[in-house]
Amino acid sequence: MLEEKNKKKRLIKRLKSKFRLVILNDISFEEKLSFRLSPLNVFLLFISGSVLLIFIVTVIIAFTPLREFIPGYTDVTLRQNLTNMVLKVDSLENDLSVKQHYLNNIRLIIQGKLPNDTSTNENELIPQYDEEARKTSKEDSLFRDFVEKEDAYNIHNNKAPKGNTLLSGTYFFTPLNGLVTGSFEPKKEHFGIDIVAPENEAIKAVIKGVVIFTGWTAETGYVISLQHENNLISIYKHNSVLMKETGEQVNAGDAIAIVGNSGELTNGPHLHFELWYDGTPLNPETYLNLK
Known about the structure:
Elements: H1 2-16, E1 19-24, E2 31-37, H2 39-63, H3 78-110, H4 118-125, H5 131-134, H6 138-150, E3 179-182, E4 192-196, E5 202-204, E6 209-217, E7 221-228, E8 232-242, E9 249-250, E10 255-259, E11 270-277, E12 280-282
Antiparallel strand pairs: 1-2, 3-4, 4-11, 5-10, 6-7, 6-9, 7-8, 8-10, 8-11, 11-12
């Protein structure tokens, strides 16, 4: 410990040791300037100068146009100004073309000739695109088919067929991804479809609506019903858990229940889904994209 203290004292003493920096005339050896310095003073002077230099450079970069010469710097208004300039140039070109056409017509009238048709000239101003370039390639068609298949369960794709005017323009969300094992057969009093899916899968609302019923029945187990616009009602049966209560508002795609095997009329985890319009049962497969 004593040796370490002695080392520290010797180091401090060296830092505080005084030295003299003298500037002499090389011929007459006359002393022009002299500075009394210590290593500690030189270190502090160097640090202060560095901080001052960094501050000055920062101020110059931040508040002067020199910052635009820094590689990678982007002026936020530069792109907007360029866009405005391009639009103005395009407008000027169109105005110039129209005025040139107007002057040509005046020249023709003075010469006793019929002026050109204005509508024809305006159509000539419209860019003409190569028809070959507008044709879709085989790769483009395959990519479109791939995207359509990938979006099969997108809410914006599940709409009623164009040929069916009933509920046309209404978009449906797929309530559950699974295999349809029971079809819509109203003659057999099967007013919906059965969708088989693994346990604990979430069941989703097909359209935005309000929960009008949540409860239990001996035959269908846990049931939840939603009232939608246009007198449309959707019913979800045989659930294991109900996640919404009567009176709650839900959006399309919101989880409202968990698929289950509740009730007497069931032999495995599945969803019995019904769709009613003005008291009439509809075939859900007509309006949903199901696997």
